[in-house]
């Protein structure tokens, strides 16, 4: 799995008809900055409103997942989102000139091809994974649905479906590595049963459905009159039933293509939690309603974890900035360069790490025999961490200085000694105006606050 966030290098466009609305639409994937996530934009509506791909915005689950925000609705988002998750793309603006993404061939494959054509671009921030902390379970006894998420340092999904159909039987599909999504899952097409077709039509759904973008499973004997009626409904001169029960002799791409498509749908629906996941997902008879209910349970756990102010730090992960990149950004040098790595950086927040050792030069004269890191140097290290955040807001940081103008509400809670790993987190308290930044900073050791302060800084051009 990727450690760094990714977007795409350039915009790329696909066009086609929507599965349920039957409306022709053009969809453009656009690059987006760090921390942007997935957002749809209805460019055909007044004001071009944005719809966040968020489980809290789900408003309809009639054969697909529909989201709505700011007076704008986007139907059937799951295949589009599955392609982005499958390529481990984090930040994209999806511009759409209609109510529904094009269905294409009924799978995610053509979206994958378009995104790969645009090219992926690594961004200077770590992926903000949500790691499943404990078993999360969803049950719908009436529908025989069960979904569970278990802790795992990876993202794996297994789906089992059983439609009580002699044609499909019981099927299962697994994705053991997200990098295999394109090869193993992306090309699996949407499907429905023959007995559902007429009902869906009467509900004003599948107006863009076609035998080229959906598999129709025939699980009973069909008369010639019914086939003629189907042909008229689908706008075809003739339809037929293949011996294994697939309408119009459509060949399956995989023996378990329906199960694989259910897994594809689940990948897309779970993208609505808003962050890439790490965990083992096991699902029996899932559908959009269950997927979304399950995603809401995951998001609730995620928000509970996020309410904790303690930054997580995994020393094994590649940092956003190592010491050489920090030295290329800040003017400080030995013995005054006081942070070792940056592990998180976005538009409003930065997290830095300082490993305190007995070899620090200040221990020679500060409390000999009782080595304690001077509070003033803790402030300086936190200020340098904040300096990285401030310089990240200008296009050419090497041409700027940052000067700290004030420190307020500073408190030292615990002493810092050799062997401690100091984690600094600085967050902007307000947007930067006229080159002045104000931020709240905290320092942690072993999950406990050791120091905190509010700091003000000024950004000044070097040639000013």
UniProtKB/TrEMBL annotation:
A single Gene Ontology CC term: cytoplasm
Major location category of this protein: cytoplasm
Active site, UniProt feature: 288, 366
Gene3D superfamilies for the chain: Hotdog Thioesterase, lpxc deacetylase, domain 1, lpxc deacetylase, domain 2
A molecular function (GO) term: metal ion binding
Subcellular location: Cytoplasm
UniProt keyword annotations, A-Z: Cytoplasm, Hydrolase, Lipid A biosynthesis, Lipid biosynthesis, Lipid metabolism, Lyase, Metal-binding, Zinc
The enzyme's E.C. designation: 4.2.1.59, 3.5.1.108
Biological process, per Gene Ontology: fatty acid biosynthetic process; lipid A biosynthetic process
Cofactor list: Zn(2+)
UniProt keyword Cell wall biogenesis/degradation present: no
UniProt binding sites for Zn(2+): 79, 261, 265
Family annotation (Pfam families): FabA, LpxC
Associated pathway: Glycolipid biosynthesis; lipid IV(A) biosynthesis; lipid IV(A) from (3R)-3-hydroxytetradecanoyl-[acyl-carrier-protein] and UDP-N-acetyl-alpha-D-glucosamine: step 2/6
Superkingdom of the organism of origin: Bacteria
Record keyword Lipid metabolism present: yes
Alphabetical list of CDD domains matching this protein: FabZ
Free-text function comment from the UniProt entry: Catalyzes the hydrolysis of UDP-3-O-myristoyl-N-acetylglucosamine to form UDP-3-O-myristoylglucosamine and acetate, the committed step in lipid A biosynthesis.
Family (UniProt): In the C-terminal section; belongs to the thioester dehydratase family. In the N-terminal section; belongs to the LpxC family.
UniProt cross-references to PANTHER family, sorted A to Z: UDP-3-O-ACYL-N-ACETYLGLUCOSAMINE DEACETYLASE 1, MITOCHONDRIAL-RELATED (PTHR33694)
Protein name, per record: Multifunctional fusion protein
Gene behind this protein: lpxC
């Amino acid at each position: 799995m990727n450690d760094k966030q990714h977007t795409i290098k350039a915009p790329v466009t696909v066009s086609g008809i929507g599965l349920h609305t039957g409306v022709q639409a053009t969809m453009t994937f656009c690059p987006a900055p760090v921390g942007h996530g997935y957002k749809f934009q209805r460019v055909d509506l007044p004001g071009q409103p944005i719809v966040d791909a968020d489980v809290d915005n789900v408003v309809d689950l009639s054969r697909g997942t529909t989201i709505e925000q700011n007076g704008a609705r986007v139907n059937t988002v799951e295949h589009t989102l599955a392609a982005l998750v499958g390529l481990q793309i984090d930040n994209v603006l999806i511009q759409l000139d209609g109510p529904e993404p094009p269905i294409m061939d009924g799978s995610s494959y053509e979206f994958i091809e378009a995104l790969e054509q645009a090219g992926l671009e690594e961004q200077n921030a770590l992926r903000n994974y949500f790691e499943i902390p404990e078993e999360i379970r969803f049950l719908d006894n009436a529908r025989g649905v069960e979904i569970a998420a278990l802790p795992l340092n990876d993202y794996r999904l297994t789906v089992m479906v059983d439609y009580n159909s002699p044609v499909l039987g019981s099927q299962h599909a697994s994705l053991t590595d997200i990098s295999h999504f394109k090869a193993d899952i992306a090309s699996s097409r949407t499907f429905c049963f023959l007995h559902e077709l007429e009902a869906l039509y009467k509900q004003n759904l599948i107006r863009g459905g076609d035998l080229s973008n959906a598999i129709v499973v025939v699980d009973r004997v069909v008369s010639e009159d019914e086939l003629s009626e189907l042909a008229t409904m689908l706008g075809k001169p003739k339809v037929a039933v293949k011996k294994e029960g697939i309408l119009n002799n459509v060949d399956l791409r995989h023996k378990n293509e329906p199960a694989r498509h259910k897994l594809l749908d689940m990948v897309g629906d779970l993208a609505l939690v808003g962050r890439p996941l790490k965990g083992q997902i096991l699902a029996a008879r899932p559908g959009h309603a269950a997927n979304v209910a399950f995603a809401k349970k995951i998001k609730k756990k995620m928000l509970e974890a996020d309410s904790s102010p303690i930054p997580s730090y995994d020393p094994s992960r590649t940092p956003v900035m190592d010491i050489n990149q920090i030295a290329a950004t800040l003017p400080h040098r030995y013995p005054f360069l006081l942070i070792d790595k940056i592990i998180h950086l976005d538009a409003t927040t930065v997290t830095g790490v300082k490993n305190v050792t007995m070899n620090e030069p200040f221990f020679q004269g500060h409390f000999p025999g009782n080595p304690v890191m001077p509070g003033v140097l803790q402030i300086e290290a936190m200020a340098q961490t904040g300096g990285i955040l401030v310089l990240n807001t200008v296009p050419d940081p090497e041409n700027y200085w940052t000067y700290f103008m004030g420190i307020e509400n500073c408190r030292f809670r615990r002493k810092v000694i050799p062997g401690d790993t100091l984690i600094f987190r600085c967050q902007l308290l307000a947007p930067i105006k006229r080159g002045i930044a104000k931020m709240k900073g905290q320092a942690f050791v072993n999950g406990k606050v050791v120091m905190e302060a509010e700091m003000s800084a000024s950004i000044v051009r070097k040639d000013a």
